[in-house]
Amino acid sequence: MLLKIVQVGDPILRAGTQPLGRDEIRSAEIQQLIEWMRETMRDAPGVGLAAPQIGLPLRLAIIEDKADAPELDRKPVPFHVIVNPTLTLGGEMVEQMEGCLSLDGFQAKVRRAKAVKVEALSHAGDPVTIEADGWYARILQHEIDHLDGHLYIDRMDTRTFTTVRNSLRFGGQ
Ligand code: ZN
User: Fold this and answer.
1) How many helices (H) and strands (E) in the chain?
2) Can you list the domains of the chain with their CATH numbers?
3) Is 95 one of the annotated active-site residues of the chain?
4) Ligand 1 centroid from CA 49, angstroms
5) Which pTM does this prediction carry?
């Protein structure tokens, strides 16, 4: 089932989220939700989707990136779920163009840590530690921001804000 993706201005995107217990994660309801979020993210298409973006204040997000783009420091990341994540940022920062399914049609340059460490629970409720860098680290920071009620526009270089169409036309400068 395709879920409706909430657009910027809806208070749910700013509300913050509630953690999930291990038994809740394993429940039929949450497993069904994960499947619907996966279908919704692939249809959009996107590389990440956080529960507030489909209107739910839950500390859960999904990630999958099929692209292989060395010039963007981007490698394929298999589908996975992060629940109740905590984020540790590396020291080095990088700036790249970023978009969001909840700000459809726009992009901007956002400075983020080049590498991160994330501790979370998996789709099965098991503890996982993720060490990521490059584009994957950016996706993790973007999705965990959603769980804390933040959007990339809170962090963007405002003068680089552009439509995707103009970004392609003018090179996102
Ligand atoms: Zn987003």
Assistant:
1) 4, 8
2) 11-170 (3.90.45.10)
3) no
4) 7
5) 0.97
